[in-house]
Specification:
Helix 2 links the parallel strand 2 (25-30) and strand 3 (55-56). A seven-stranded mixed sheet has the order 3-2-1-4-5-9-8, sandwiched between helices. Strands 6-7 form a two-stranded parallel sheet. The protein is globular, with a radius of gyration of 16 Å. The protein has helices at residues 12-20, 33-45, 83-96, 118-130, 139-148, and strands at 2-6, 25-30, 55-56, 71-75, 102-107, 109-110, 137-138, 151-159, 163-170. It is built from five helices and nine strands. The chain is of the alpha/beta class.
């Protein structure tokens, strides 16, 4: 299957996953030209048959340049982007994923409005100091946006350094909510 990675940044995650999961194809994307150059450099340094050439993709621009995927992976994006990017992420993914397909987020989250660690509160303040539209997102609010786009939260897994992996599943083939 094809895994669409959004906001691939440097490209290190796509390179790692393509090598670790050779039965899958990984499509790294980013909206930033410097990030796309970094992804290409990582891919050249550590080639893998399952790693596709990076594509420009900004979640806010619809329709996306990738029209179909079997899974969507988004690592460390929603807290360093405006809240509108979270909504655009789920709406765009709803348009390209089949029922039952996963959308996987990774990063720091608040739970029920609270930080699970003081380090995440400090990180949140740092992000908001850089740009008031940024910040560690509350998982209940993210889940509400996901549900509005036709996704159900399936699993939350605690990860190192107070991060979490959150798996959502595309619920149906119905029209993407407006």
């Amino acid at each position: 299957g094809l895994v669409l990675e959004l906001a691939s940044g440097t490209g290190q995650h796509a390179v790692h996953f393509a090598r670790a999961l050779p039965g899958l194809r990984f499509q790294p994307t980013d909206g930033d030209a410097a990030a796309l150059a970094s992804i290409a450099a990582w891919a050249a340094a550590e080639p893998s048959p399952g790693l596709l050439a990076p594509l420009r993709l900004d979640v806010h621009e619809a329709p996306w340049s990738v029209r179909q995927a079997d899974a969507v992976l988004c690592i460390n994006m929603i807290h360093i982007a405006p809240w509108t990017a979270t909504d655009a992420l789920f709406r765009g993914a709803a348009a390209i994923l089949s029922p039952g397909a996963p959308l996987v987020l990774y990063g720091p989250f608040r739970f029920g409005g609270a930080f699970l660690a003081e380090s995440n509160a400090v990180f949140d303040a740092s992000l908001r100091g850089r740009d008031p539209r940024f910040g560690v997102r509350d998982l209940d609010e993210v889940t509400a946006v996901a549900a509005a786009a036709g996704f159900a939260r399936e699993r939350v897994v605690a990860m190192p350094v107070n991060n979490h992996t959150v798996v959502f599943r595309r619920a149906d083939l119905g029209a993407v909510p407006s």
